[in-house]
Amino acid sequence: MAKRDTRKYDFKVGNKIVHSGITNDLERREDEHKQRWPKGHIVQVERATTEEAAREWEKTKQKAITPKRTK
């Protein structure tokens, strides 16, 4: 059985989501993002999950926020 040790998160500055992703260490990842966005904070999304399920979530999240190109 796969370990549920991967967290899905949003990194926010104020109420605006500036980045979404997955990690197995929320504190480390927050520190990394704060180098770019010092006033931001990390918010865990849902419960810890398997890495495979988290990667699928990340793919669908990226599709939802990536604007479609127009010709």
Secondary-structure blueprint of this entry?
Layout: E1 6-13, E2 16-23, H1 26-34, E3 41-49, H2 51-65
Antiparallel strand pairs: 1-2, 1-3
Q: What's this entry about, in short?
A:
This protein is an alpha+beta fold.
Description:
With 71 residues, the protein is of the alpha+beta class. It has one domain. The relative contact order is 0.26. It is flat. It has a 3-stranded antiparallel β-sheet with strand order 2-1-3, with helices on both faces. Strand 1 (6-13) and strand 2 (16-23) form a beta hairpin. It has helices at residues 26-34, 51-65; strands spanning 6-13, 16-23, 41-49. The longest helix is centred in the last third of the chain and has 15 residues, at 51-65. The mean pLDDT is 90.
Secondary structure tally: strands: 3
| Structural class based on helices, strands and sheet pairing | alpha+beta
- Sheet with the most strands, sense and barrel status: 3 strands, antiparallel
Strand content: 35-45%
Distance N to C terminus: 46 Å
> What is the succession of H and E elements?
EEHEH
What global shape is seen?
flat
Cα Rg: 13 Å
| Side-by-side strand order of the widest sheet | 2-1-3
- Residue runs with pLDDT of under 50 for 5 or more positions: none
The percentage helix is 25-40%
Count of helical regions: 2
Give me some keywords for this one:
single chain, 71 residues, alpha+beta, three-stranded antiparallel β-sheet, 2 helices
